[in-house]
Amino acid sequence: MDSERTAGEGGWPLVSILIPAHNHERFVLRCLDSVLEDPYPAKELVIVDDGSVDGTPGKIAQWIARHEGTLPIIYRRRENRGVATTLNELASLARGDFLKLGASDDFLLPGGLEAQVRYLQAHPRKWAVVGDSVVVDCYGNRVHDSGMRGLHRADKRQYATDEGIRRAVIRHWAIGGPVALLRRSVPGAISGWTEELRIDDWDFFLRLVARDALGFIDQPVCAYRLHDANLSKTRHVATRVANLAESRRVALRRVELFDGPDRLLLKAQAHYIGAKIAFLQRRPLRLAWRLAACLVLRGVSKVRLPSAHPEVERA
Description:
9 strands; alpha/beta
């Protein structure tokens, strides 16, 4: 990604709102409307339709026809290539200093963009910041005031320190929906999404927290929508096993980024994911072994050791 360079309206940095769209004809208009509803003055909208086979492309085209001229819009439509490839393409098309990750079935909440921009301006050593979400159902009715608490039962106080964020992202993945704002100038080791992954967000944020580069604001910045097509909510056993197996591979691949207790905790998480797989596959001996290994590693990980990245200043 290029260095920060773009001055937006009134001196505000330009924010590129990235929307990967795929088969969300019921929800995409609410998503696009929310971009206009947020009062942040310097923004552009970048949309890539990732091979939708429903009415999503038509809805997007109609919306652009109505609102063209209101804000800069870049729109591409092509065959399906997956969310990670689409996010990389969106980032390559964007022109802003900051990249706001969106989703065509979710929507932004007014004030979130400014709050996240202000955080990154005040914390120059942070490369990204996440906020909380509210959770809505397929009709837009509010289900939870906090996605982190309501869906994941996360203790948000953990996110007050770099150590807490690291351990929270490793052990209790509680980030859901379009809650992240990134600097365009994220270094090459962090920037980009791993295109062979189907569920790529954990991998991306593990790379960030390994460098203490992720911040948090305790403010809902988006609405995360629950519906039958949520990729992570499938009840199909074979699909769940495949998703868990991918997550376990991510954990094992990224272990080398961490040291000491954090490395042990990520190894423990790999065993915990393996235990979930064993449960779904009805393999009780493997389940017991995985759980035992997880508990041992979690216990040892509570020992505090120096960080492998002392050069990174804590924000």
